[in-house]
Amino acid sequence: MEIVKKIDLNCDMGESFGVYRVGDDAALIAALIQTPEGCAITSANIACGYHAGDPLVMDRTVRLAARHGVGIGAHPGFPDLLGFGRRAMQLTSNEIENDVLYQVGALAAFARSVGASLVHVKPHGALYNMAAQDLEMARAIAQGVARVDPALILVGLSGSALIDAGRAMGLRVAREGFADRAYNADGTLRSRRLPGAVIETPEAAAERALRMARDGAVTAYTGEEIALQVDTICVHGDTPTAIDIARAIRRRLAEADVVLAPMGAFV
Amino acid sequence: MEIVKKIDLNCDMGESFGVYRVGDDAALIAALIQTPEGCAITSANIACGYHAGDPLVMDRTVRLAARHGVGIGAHPGFPDLLGFGRRAMQLTSNEIENDVLYQVGALAAFARSVGASLVHVKPHGALYNMAAQDLEMARAIAQGVARVDPALILVGLSGSALIDAGRAMGLRVAREGFADRAYNADGTLRSRRLPGAVIETPEAAAERALRMARDGAVTAYTGEEIALQVDTICVHGDTPTAIDIARAIRRRLAEADVVLAPMGAFV
Amino acid sequence: MEIVKKIDLNCDMGESFGVYRVGDDAALIAALIQTPEGCAITSANIACGYHAGDPLVMDRTVRLAARHGVGIGAHPGFPDLLGFGRRAMQLTSNEIENDVLYQVGALAAFARSVGASLVHVKPHGALYNMAAQDLEMARAIAQGVARVDPALILVGLSGSALIDAGRAMGLRVAREGFADRAYNADGTLRSRRLPGAVIETPEAAAERALRMARDGAVTAYTGEEIALQVDTICVHGDTPTAIDIARAIRRRLAEADVVLAPMGAFV
Amino acid sequence: MEIVKKIDLNCDMGESFGVYRVGDDAALIAALIQTPEGCAITSANIACGYHAGDPLVMDRTVRLAARHGVGIGAHPGFPDLLGFGRRAMQLTSNEIENDVLYQVGALAAFARSVGASLVHVKPHGALYNMAAQDLEMARAIAQGVARVDPALILVGLSGSALIDAGRAMGLRVAREGFADRAYNADGTLRSRRLPGAVIETPEAAAERALRMARDGAVTAYTGEEIALQVDTICVHGDTPTAIDIARAIRRRLAEADVVLAPMGAFV
Questions:
Q1: What percentage of chain A exceeds 90 in pLDDT?
Q2: Cα–Cα distance for residue pair D267/D263, rounded to 1 Å
Q3: Residue C69 CB neighbour total at 10 angstroms
Q4: 3-state secondary structure of B145
Q5: CA–CA separation, D50 vs D80, rounded Å?
Q6: Phi, psi (rounded to 5 degrees) for A119
Q7: How far apart are CA B183 and CA B204, in angstroms?
Q8: Domain range spanning residue A14?
Q9: Between chains, do D87 and A90 touch, taking CB under 8 Å as contact?
Q10: Positive or negative, the Cα torsion across C84, C89, C95, C97?
């Protein structure tokens, strides 16, 4: 009997706001979703209007994901458009729970309105990073998600407090790995402020993606082999090489018979 | 055989924002909802974060309405917190439809999360007033509401374009009357900028409410009797006499055997 | 004796917001300001944080303009980041006056902080367009500008209510013309919703700029010659051909011995 | 020869936003400024639109302070209206410097526009508290203030990093004390989350104010006598007893011949 390895590829999308653009959302969508050979990603994390996105952008992005069979996810963030949700903010658990409920509830309505379903929730930016370490914040997020729909999948950094909190709340979880980021020996991400934090060559990133997907392992920046169970790999959309990396990952996984599938199908 | 006349009393609620208060929301809720003799209103229009309200306030207000059996409605407005949604804005139909979908979708999630259901949608302020006259805008609102849930009730000024648009969209509608406002002979409201626009004595307002509810009629400012079919009467919360007016209406309707009931039970 | 014709070329700048970009601000600045042959424009209208811009962007853009000798102007707009200040809003005169004072005051502080001076104020988008027709709104803007500094120059559409209001307030005014837009016979701009509203070829736009600058005239869309006194010509930055148009105008004016000069030097 | 002790009393004001109220600004102003016996305070810290306040409120509050001879100060905060500037945010120094410059520049324009001058700057909420400990943040604030006008007075917690940074920047500083708050033995404020953090009886607060003003000392919560040099004492406006405390302080200082004077007159 053969065990088929499955993995999801997710990407942040729908980050425009009014006439404003961040990165090149349109080019990204064209390269990752509207491709002749089928989508390069399987799940989209769609901004919900707090750190990015607006109702028109949400509508457009949800329709696009639905049309192409890409899993629809909510991407809630801190209420900080100016800082794009990347600045840490000190909120109470009650604020976080209800901020998540608000954003996820709104995005779920857009999905339902086009006959699609919301599949997952992945916190954005500082909210994601803080919740990886802070169990109380992680619980507040999980609670907000569960209140919208207990069948939603919560996406968090593999091994993080957010994954623990999601499981404790009875949610399905998807453990995320970063093919283009260096890891510390303890499974945390090497800070972007340090040299070597980002893997820039597509082939190196693709190789790391394969190791995560197939072997549940990654080589730390300091050389150690570490275990890293991942259900979904993040494809960053905000760098010029992102599209090349996404394609290289897709190709490498296919060569190794790892099956790309939306997280909703297997977690 | 006797026909039982039924009428709904609605009131805007949940208009605080962070530490900010508008009017005296707490006093209003205490007087209209948390009363020994039962709620003085049957439906609450709850702000959705654009012109007023925030996730914590929405959560608190939805729970309160649910606990006391008050019908839960969404109260979407223009994206203008500074102007409290009272300043006309020129939005495209597409913007309006999706702004409404966003806000109503978010509030519906709060209702579901506490085991309650969203019953109705009443646009706020300038959005309500413009949609009374502007059929294209009215259609955009109705479309946004229908996309969240075609079973929702759309509340609009009796005789207005919003009511027409809701019906054309296949939505149930609730025709609204204002017991404390003077009417023009054509069924529109006398502008607040003109003298005599507001009925200030509770007894006079209560008498007008009864005529609307029982007889489907109101006396215009210029003396004409006009037909005015109403399913729900608005109780303004932002004046000191609002609570007295609400109580007077309730008492007068009871004396005349008009039954107060949530709009969801009869429209 | 020879009369030297002088004209100013102005362009909107500093419209980014956090990580968000609108158009290609950087390319625009590189092409219009940081050029070996000197700036292609003489005045910059810098967004003030209401419809676009943020404190970091304001600081950066003010410093750039100051370094290159480009006249610094404030570009206040409606409080509507989502709509980029292009959506009409119904504000009171008191709101408009103080919204202008706030934004212009803030930008003036950035200018002073780098040893430069604020020269002019040009309202943005819907505020500009509405004030061209609405004298009460125009007066509110002029009052807001005068309260910051009565020596500021107010920029408005040539022949508009804003120019009248500025003069009546005792402000210096700069009458603006649009080389890339068609005019109606009454001197108003042909609506963008109609065909032929935009002049797209750089040479045609440059020829129109020359006629405005040298002859005080323009040919209306319907063929009439109309008088149009202009002190400054707007170079739009949000189209791919904008830079070509700016260069063509500059070249054509130079050929005809029309001198480009900051508006502060001659109005 | 006698040394006359002088002290300033400051209060936050102008914290409304549109129709929204926080605390009872009007009652506070009536009680502290528009009194027959003269103002109970000597300096007002006026919100600048980021955490509270809007252009109309700023205009109204600045005019009121100017008319009554109360020193006008800017009260910049984090860009977080929802959280009223009380939630810690992780901003870069560059962001903080320019956010302060923006807000103070705007308020200074309102002051100048009514023929008054901005006297001081006191950061608000989390910005104030973080800058008391974080020298880098304190420097960014001081830099933003100095860029608006190096003659401005920077108000900070007595003994804090903000005072150090202001002095290092060459600014005049005003060291602030809190008559209604308990102190730790190291001169920091006892956390509001702990019992006994707030001094509630007006007479006790007044006695502490006198000790700070006259003796440069305060008794810590744990009993130690600690030195505390103060130039200005904060009168909180958001509690019912605030007005009583302000009056008691004023009376107690007068009895002891401590002279109330605007900080601009003596620091």
A1: 82
A2: 6
A3: 12
A4: helix
A5: 6
A6: -105, -45
A7: 14
A8: 6-265
A9: yes
A10: positive
Chain B interface residues (partner A, CB cutoff 8 A) = 49, 55-56, 58-59, 94-95, 98-99, 101-110, 112-113, 147-148
In a domain, B116, yes or no: yes
D131 within 8 A of D161, measured Cβ to Cβ: yes
Q: The domain that contains D76 carries what CATH number?
A: 3.20.20.370
Task: State the total domains in chain C.
Answer: 1
A21, C22: Cβ pair inside 8 Å? yes
How big is the B-C interface in CB pairs under 8 Å? 27
Q: How many other β-carbons are positioned within 10 Å of the β-carbon of residue B216?
A: 16
Q: Does an H or E element contain C166, and which?
A: helix C161-168
Both structure tokens of A89:
């903010």
Q: Is residue D32 a part of any domain in this protein? A: yes
Question: Look-up: residue for tokens 């700016």?
Answer: C246
For chains A and C, what is the number of CB pairs under 8 angstroms? 31
pLDDT attached to residue A240: 67
Rounded CA-CA distance A113/A107 in Å is: 10
For chain A, the chains sharing at least 3 beta-carbon pairs closer than 8 angstroms are B, C, D
pLDDT per position as a tens digit, B107-165: 999 999 999 999 999 999 999 999 999 999 999 999 999 999 999 999 999 999 999 99
Which residues of B are less than 8 Å from A110 in CB distance? 101-102, 105
Query: Any bridge partners for residue A195, and if so which?
Result: none
User: How many angstroms separate the CA of residue D130 from the nearest CA in chain A?
Assistant: 12
Query: With 90 as the cut, is the pLDDT of residue A40 above it?
Result: no
User: Cβ C89–B88 below 8 Å, yes or no?
Assistant: yes
D neighbours by CB contacts (3+ pairs under 8 Å)? A, B, C
Of the candidate ranges B208-217, C234-243, D54-63, the one whose mean pLDDT is the lowest: C234-243
State residue A61 phi and psi, 5-degree precision: -70, -40
Report the distance separating Cα B267 and Cα B8, nearest Å: 10
Contact between A88 and D90 using a beta-carbon 8 Å cutoff: yes
- Are the beta carbons of A183 and A190 closer than 8 angstroms? yes
Look at B89 and C79 and tell me if their CB atoms are within 8 Å.
Answer: no
Q: Which residues on B lie below 8 Å from A99 (Cβ)?
A: 55
- Please judge whether D87 and A88 are an interchain contact, meaning their C-beta atoms are less than 8 angstroms apart: no
Of A5, A8, A3, A71, the residue nearest A261 (C-alpha)? A8
Does the residue B111 lie in any domain?
yes
Strand ranges (DSSP E) for B27-181? Answer: 43-47, 71-75, 118-121, 153-157, 172-178
* A161/C19 Cα distance (integer angstroms): 29
Q: Which of D75, D160, D156, D157 is nearest to D111 (CA)?
A: D75
Contact yes or no for C49 and D108 at CB 8 A:
no
Q: Using CA atoms, how far apart are residues C163 and C148, in angstroms rounded to an integer?
A: 18
Question: Does residue A163 lie within any of the structural domains?
Answer: yes
| Selection from A30, A32, A26 nearest residue A9 by Cα | A32
Residues B57, B16: contact at Cβ < 8 Å? yes
pLDDT computed for residue D89 by the predictor: 97
Of residues D7, D17, D132, the one with CA closest to residue D71: D7
Question: Are A224 and A185 in contact, with CB atoms under 8 Å apart?
Answer: yes
Residue A19's closest chain C neighbor by CA? Answer: C22
State the nearest Cα–Cα gap between D82 and chain B, in angstroms.
5
Cβ <8 Å between A91 and D83: yes
Which portions of chain D are predicted below pLDDT 70?
1-3, 24, 238-240
Determine, for residues D54 and B82 on separate chains, whether the beta-carbon distance falls below 8 Å.
yes
